[in-house]
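Justification of resources, computational component.

The compute hours requested in this renewal are based largely on the per-chain cost of generating structure records like the one below. Each record pairs the submitted sequence with a full structure-token output. That output is archived, and it is also reused by downstream analysis tasks.
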Amino acid sequence: MLDHIGVRVKDYAKAKSFYLAALAPLGYQLFMEFAAEHGIGYMGAGFGVDGKPDFWIGVGSSSGPIHLAFVARDRKTVDAFHAAALAAGGRDNGGPGLREQYHPTYYGAFVLDLEGNNIEAVCHKPA
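The structure output for this chain reads:
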């Protein structure tokens, strides 16, 4: 089980804005943010659910391209993620739908973020 994951981004302000919008349908919020004046050598933002940041973005050379998949509670949430991510500047990389090649109830949507990372929301439950 993972506790958290972090990716590096070139344009912190744009990435932060993108992820605030794209992850909102999944229940993600910004919970922590570090700036240079904190003296830890890291400028970044932690997003999560229920007060626990498990996804971080930090200033630096791009980590990508990488693939990240976020759990969605239902298929409508997958659809909402896809729409929000596109509206925030992401590029479509596979619209919402069944991906039966993975398993019969795999419902996902894929968006390329501003750094070219493949960001997915997925629901494994039946309709």
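The CA atoms of residues 69 and 120 lie 4 Å apart. The radius of gyration is 15 Å.
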